Request: fold
Amino acid sequence: MLTLLEQLDKGTLWQSPGGIHPPQLKTLSNQSTIARLPLAHRFVVPVPLVGEQAVLTVAVGDQVLKGQMLTEGTGFTYLPVHAPTSGRVVAIEQHATNHPSSLPTLSCVIEADGQNAWCELIPHSLEQLSKNQILDKIKNAGIAGMGGAAFPTHVKLNPASEINLVIINGVECEPYISSDDRLMRDYSDEILKGIAVIHHLLNPQRIIIAIEDNKPEAAKAMQDAVQRSTLPAGIIRVTVIPTKYPSGGEKQLIQIITGKEVPSGHIPAQLGIVVHNVGTAYAIQEAVYQGKPLIERVVTLTGEQIGQPGNYWLPIGTTINDALQAVSFNPSAAQKVIVGGPMMGYALADLDVPILKGTNCLLAPSAHEIAPDVDEKACIRCGECAVACPALLLPQQLFWHAKAEEYDKAASFNLKDCIECGCCSYVCPSDIPLVEYYRVAKSALKIEAEEKRQAEQAKVRFEARIQRLEDEKNAREAKAKEAAAKRQSNMKSTDKDAVAAAMARIAAKKAQATSSTVSPEAPQTTVDPKKAAVNAAIERAKAKKAAKANTVSRANELDTSSAEVSVDDKQAKIAAAVARAKAKKAAQANTESTVQTPNPAETEVAGTEPTADAVDDKKARVAAAVAKAKAKKLAQAGQTDDSAVEAEPTTDAVDDKKARVAAAVAKAKAKKLAQVGQTDNTAVEAEPTTDAVDDKKARVAAAVAKAKAKKLAQVGQTDNTAVEAEPTTDAVDDKKARIAAAVAKAKAKKMVQASQIDIGEAASQPTVSVESTADIAPDAALTVTADSADLSPEQIKKAKVAAAVAKAKAKQLAKRAEQEEQ
Amino acid sequence: MAFKIASSPHVSTSLHTNTVMKRVAFCLIPGIAVQSYYFGFGTLVQILLAVSVAYLAEAAVMKLRNKNIKATLSDNSALVTACLLAVAIPSLAPWWLIVIGTLFAIVIVKQLYGGLGNNVFNPAMAAYVLLLISFPVQMTSWVAPQTIAMNHASLLTSVQTIFEINQSFAAEYFRLGIDGIAMATPLDTLKTDLSMGLTTTESLAKPIFSGLAAEGWFGVNLAYLVGGLVMLKLKVIRWHISVAIIASLFVCASFGFLVSPDTFVSPLMHLFSGGTMLAAFFIATDPVTAATSPRGRLIFGAMIGVLIYLIRTFGGYPDAVAFAVLLANMCAPFIDYYVRPRSYGHRTGK
Reply:
């Protein structure tokens, strides 16, 4: 088994399927060397993509030199356009272009001054330039594939994958065309120099120059040039392939030379193969060694209606009319002028269009040279088209479906793999213009795909809009409720009303969060003012639970148990606070992934309930007020963690009146802060309000908070740091300090686990960390007091109240922290 | 001036449908000539009759459909259909037989389905089956080949017989054989003999058989084979269907012959009697009703070959070409659907 390289060296050829043998008719134009025509007076140079990818560098009235850049672009694939001769820019306007549609495109019209004076050219040798500089030179010379597709050459010379084989395409399989044939005969050494540049850039293992056997002179010339060239021996060879249309197609040529098929939807570079036209190789050489941009090319002017058929150097931008007039074009009636060959070329309606970089032939045939216009007849399913198809398609099935406009079915027969070579139409005994059907079907599929894409985009936009409207509506409703609740609270001023107002506000907040209404439950709570408060608290707790409600069972039990107890005024309020705390905890538990923490917390609370009896009236109210303030702040607060921080210390242990005042103040501040922004300073500002706080408690709380803050900050790093916090509590009252410290330590650990504050968050949001820890301390105290009998009832009471309040806060904050995290 | 625009390609081959059909008709000539030699001028009369009726019928339908009569008639497809039907029926069959058959083929089988290219069934074969089922006696009464017949009809007597002009001159005289017994085709004879307990050797000893194949029919088949080879050479048809039919029929017949030479006839007998070669080159290769891809055509042809053998050997009819072709016609769209060639750059056909 020979390797591919060995087979390439031997010149082994593979069979390409299908194909046809139309009359060649190349001798009409290939008998003389490439000539020049007198310089035309007017040139039309299309400057496409100006405004999209490029800008014009000239204006109307400017003098330009031959080879001067007319546009400058930024895109990787953008190729600049150059002036084909020296002269004056007389117009930059929409002008019909050389395209089957003749649709106008922005063009630069240049009036030649006859001097044909070059701009400054910078010649180089390969050694002087880096690969990137060479590629830049090729790009700036505006070199596009000269075989017809006009793909930017520098892109193909800078492939993502390694290239093993370069095929230089001198096949020229279309009838009539001989521009590559003549170029190879007349400029073989220059082509080899261009190939050397390609070799330098791609460094392939082999370079094959493929030429059809109907061009023996060209093959001979190239063979001689290869021998003269300086390229390493054994790398390059001329391979003559049998004449068959469309062997010059990229995919077909690769198949003939290597036996490989380019997978559908891929490019040859993925096989390590790249194909360049001989004309491109010539242009590369001009650009690199002489610094000349691509401003002229060889065009075959042929057909029986042309007086002097042959190959000519034509500046790009020469109008087809000028070119044909210069070679004695004599149009007949119903004359066709075809750009390209008779198989794939397109007929022009208007000849005032320019020669482009890919224009290799102008064919002006007499009536008997081309197929007469005949009506399409019925397909007899002879299958000749399938035999001729080089892409191994079933043209007849494609036609069947394309004609019936069943484009999806046509696509299922691999319509997109059709290369539009025209073999099927050529052999069709029924004169069916098959390729035309395929073009229509392809366009229809393209439009369909585009419409589908747009419809999908529109759907996404529509859904986003619906969502936005929904969100806005919810936000408006929530705002309205909040405003209503605030009005209500402003109207009344008794203690109970304040509590109720707070509850109402909280309910409103919850409603905002959950979109579910709490109000239906409210009417049930109307006994005496005290009970009302109790019930309200319970309702609140329930509402929260319901809102969060994935797993409410535990919280529910606790609620009902507290509700059933016929408590007095004081108890009621404590219970309310407790219930609230529990509810929050329960809610938090539901949202947390680790369920372990809430359970102990709840049991602790349950245990403390009986001992709460001793708490006095004032404190209960204080607790309520505090809760209110907190709740409000927290609810408002998506806004800022800081606002929560300030309000909390404010109310800790003030008496009744002060509590209300403080609450009001805190509320106001919280709002202000929420509006004003979220600066770290706000936390500082809030601190002075804590002056009013009861001495001892303040100290305790402060110390604990301090300790906790430290711990928490450290805990992020290590569990052991919790111990360090202990010494800081020395200043505090003995018993409390001990209890608080122990509890705080435990809690801090728990909390760290529970609220899942990771190191990152602890660091980035110090305020939150401090806050939550500070809250946890009393919470823990509550737990511990239940079994520590040596504490005075007074202390226990205070501790519990504070604990309940703080606990609630802690949960909320923790929850919020979690949400923010998410 | 405004120039003429058109879609590429701008050149085309000169082999058009009408040329293809004309060539098919020309390639039938050797077969028709030999058939006329053995079975009298009746065949020519039948062809003339069939072609006239076919063109008239097609023109009438085109008129009804408001289509261009000239364009349709000039595609020569009616000519081929008429010729194929005419050579398939007994040469001295009464005139109304071929008229009914041709009308059915052109009007119902072809035009009612949408005209050329849209018919599901081969028109000639569908008409043949209609006639065979409706008029079995007339359809199986072949005259004896002239080499063994006592009398053979002149052109005039053939016309008279076909048009049933001179009843006294007795169509029966020619239609019936030497001894007044209806002359069945060799395959029919063989089938009858086998069912009567004779061995193939005993049956083949009868004068209707000469050597290995049937008297007359061997020559006719050989002539159609020659015509078919010319068509291949002219690229009017591709080889796949013909080769597949012949090969599969040969394989089946060889197998049967090897297993039991007494009850199964030789492969040569199968290949060169009845309508085998006519079917293999002229009937089954009708592109409209056949599969289109090379592989599909091989399957299509093989199917016909096997069906011919099975029906001839085990079925109720002596020859089976028409049935086999119609059955395969039905399968053609399925074959095309499931047998798709692999496209360039694709791993599989779908």
